[in-house]
Batch of 2 targets.
Target 1
Amino acid sequence: MKKTLALALAVVMSLGLLAGCGGNGGNSGNTSNPPANNSTSQDQSGSGVASSIPDAPEGGGTVGVCIYKFDDAFMTTYRNSLQEILKGKGYKVTVVDGNNDQAKQNEQINTFITQKVDALIINPVMTSAADQIIGTVKEAGIPTVLINREPTAEQMAAYDKLVYVGCDAAQSGTFQGELILETANQGDINGDGKISYIMIQGDPENIDAQLRTEYSVQALKDAGKEVEQLNLTRGDWDRNRGQEIAANDLAQFGDKIEVIFCNNDDMAIGALQSIQQAGRKVNEDIYLVGVDALDAALNEVMNGNMTGTVLNDAVGQATEAVNQMELLLSGTTYSSGNQSVYVPYVKVTPDNAKDFVK
Ligand code: BGC
């Protein structure tokens, strides 16, 4: 029930988003009327379905989905949602695990091309591989939706049947900073006039990690606060790394740490274990924020063990990725500078956390 509601909300949000921000401003196709169905799935309705659907893309409805690695908490929710939506619409979908290895993902993309899939949805392993990925799908002429790791506008401009679906990473950082500013002492627990923090960063090659790191602190500075970075360490989005880094920093800096910024929730949940082991109490003598709104993090926000998080709307992004894929399949092309479609982030506090539990 909750899932259905979340999905409905995501659809409404993405419709609003398309109408409102003009993410497809440069489209040359008819964006308001995507094909209703592209099913050729044997298990849904048997063979010959495609020919009975006038709008079905020529060649059927097979979709290859490349995920950078399955062992990522946020991308697990995302890929499950993608699979559910695509299957629900009758596509034949294959989802593959890149194991955090760009060479492996390149092979997977080539295999999908050899299999003549109708469309690709790709979560690149390395943002720096974008040129190569875009070159490959362009040469094969396969409509492609990139997700989660945003290339530059210039890189995407190389191929007009390519679009990126994600979020404005700077916004999530700003929300994290605001969560700290909204606390009783605005992050300055010891009253020394500055906010002393450690930053636990995702994979720094990823723009989400770069912008969250920058904008969380920028929000504090914009509010006129003095800040002190005690440490910044890459945790590669990983819970265990979050735990180790927080343990080391708590041992080294002790009570000096007033805020722990984590670029995602999985690392924040790891950090929470170390905070508790160190005998510290979130929202009393330390603040802790993440991004994603994983269910585990939402529970900790509601229990007062995390100060807050930011909804990184996996269902909304999966819905939008499929929507954009269907637009590409129906002939939409994109012009340079209009190839990123953003789903909004939402700030999550104890007041609204329950609304996002899946
Ligand atoms: C999410 C992280 C995830 C990463 C994968 C980010 O947007 O916040 O949790 O590990 O994407 O690229």
Note: The two ends are 9 Å apart (CA to CA).
Target 2
Amino acid sequence: MAYTVEPPAEGRRITYDEGSGELRVPNNPVIPIIYGDGIGTDVGPAARRVLDAAAEATGRRVAWMRVYAGEAARDWYGENLPSETVDAIREHRVAIKGPLTTPVGSGFRSLNVALRQTLDLYANVRPTYHLDGVPSPVKHPEHMDMVTFRENTEDVYAGIEWEAGTDGAEELRRFVEEELGCTGVIHDGPVGVGLKPITEFGTKRLVREAIDYALEHGRDTVTLVHKGNIMKYTEGAFRDWGYEVAEREYGDEVITEDTLWEERDGELPAEAVVVNDRLADNMLQQVLTRTENYDVLATPNLNGDYLSDACGAQVGGLGVAPGANFGEGRCLAEPVHGSAPKYAGQDKVNPTALILSGRIMLDFLGWSDAADLVRDGVEATIQDRTVTYDLHRNIDGGEKVSTSEFAELVAEKIRGMG
Ligand code: NAP
């Protein structure tokens, strides 16, 4: 049966002025929400409850428009990513989603990646910060305060790959060996092949976002994280184009690390952002051993995925790690975690990651007062030691609560603060 989702009548549409780059947000915006697969049906309603409380406490109301992808969409529409869902997110500009399951090896391609590519959400932004009271495996979790800007549309995630034994894989092998003369590199026998496109366009618009963010938020550094020593013409190019943006487009507002030492003896000019670069493998230890030295990270797609999970582990793990995807006048908030199928429907997991993803969305709407309430409400609830199983196992003497109970406690805190 065909199923058509209508925008709620009580809401108004968010619009975007391309000329000025301004988002126009009514007090009752229509916001599409995908609960998602697995634990999505637990954390989705929980996050909604908290975001509603924050909106109401600041004199607004979100008109939620529930849309479907993944398993729920297969039930309704017979397909994983119905065009109706993509259109709703495109038209309403700001949306939030829970996790969607992606089968490994065979089956359909990632719906998350498809959504990001279709809507050209080119920057996946993952802020990693410590909330007081969240247990951590490191001595000073409060030192962690980084924001990862991960390129979201290319790299090995572009989906240009061929399965071993297919004509595509064999044709590419022949082309590489015979036309390009790269012989003796690919072993004989079945080979799976993928391409890793990194473009000047994709790199530069991502790095601009990272630098703009650093300037707007008074951050000290932007670090380009790459593996350019090995992948010279992809990750190395990411580094070079990143520096080119910094040097050519930002004048005195930005200074590169080399210039800082060569011309200024390490003396930092007032209020300038320093752009530096680090190799990705080194960076995975730097975020642990020199946490305080880093602020904003700009990375190709794969590095950013690894790095943001590693950063998140220092401040509470996947249950509390938020994120959002940004494009031109667009935001699709989503947590870092996946659908954790083994916990699906148990009202058990931590909804904080999706709640704090919602906080990013509220900030994007210009509702920073509501966004602050969300953060403060979550933090106050965790400080009370009323936490879900994941944090409870590392807290002495706390009270273990369910997903929905945690959300209600946060909403109560917000109502008390508003
Ligand atoms: P996952 O779903 O993130 O779960 C891995 C582990 O992280 C869980 O077993 C749990 O650890 C912990 N965890 C995740 N979310 C949590 C939460 N809200 N509260 C508390 N703990 C949480 O990763 P996965 O098992 O590798 O992936 C499952 C599926 O999700 C795959 O199909 C994958 O493709 C998909 N995925 C989707 C997205 C997305 O939609 N953007 C992102 C990543 C993965 P413990 O059991 O140790 O407590």
Note: The longest strand covers residues 123-129.
